[in-house]
Design a protein that fits this description.
Length: 165
């Protein structure tokens, strides 16, 4: 069973450790800002990812009725980071991170790590199974970042983390 981000802004963690940044569930009104974060984080790469437009991708990932979990990092009410993951129907419950993006001028402040920590918290609360796997496909230049927060490499470009609760 997967929670899909149905909480309102006030129901989610509002810890402001990283320079006034709050991690909250994405809402429909965040679509344009999410699209902007994705566009800024992956300049010129929409065709590589086979995306029609960053706006349509942002609309797709905030749809909580399709097993998606989408969280945003907000600083002064502006979206500065986003993480989007899908719940997969597999033998071992699996959540696959599809997007993790932080505005280039906000990188290095721990926002990406906090987005992953909050995702793990949402997943931990949403699954009854004792073991859950989180996977992602990372570019080779980002492997060190993911290793530091607990992911291991498996296969070409794929990384995973298992946790027990």
């Amino acid at each position: 069973m997967c929670l899909a981000g149905e909480k309102a802004e006030t129901d989610v963690a509002s810890d402001e450790r990283a320079g006034g940044v709050r991690i909250i569930h994405a809402m429909a009104r965040d679509v344009e800002e999410i699209a902007s974060v994705l566009r800024d984080s992956f300049p010129g790469e929409a065709s590589y990812y086979k995306i029609k437009s960053w706006y349509s991708e942002a609309k797709r990932i905030i749809r909580c009725d399709r097993g998606w979990i989408c969280l945003v990092a907000k600083k002064d009410r502006e979206v500065v980071g986003v993480i989007a993951a899908r719940c997969l129907k597999t033998e071992i419950p699996t959540v696959r991170i599809e997007w993790l993006a932080v505005r280039p001028n906000e990188r290095g402040l721990g926002i990406g790590s906090r987005l992953i920590e909050e995702l793990i918290g949402v997943v931990d609360a949403g699954f009854k199974e004792p073991v859950v796997r989180i996977t992602l496909r990372a570019r080779s230049d980002r492997h060190d970042f993911y290793r530091r927060i607990g992911f291991r490499c498996y296969g070409k470009g794929w990384m995973k983390m298992r946790f027990r609760h």
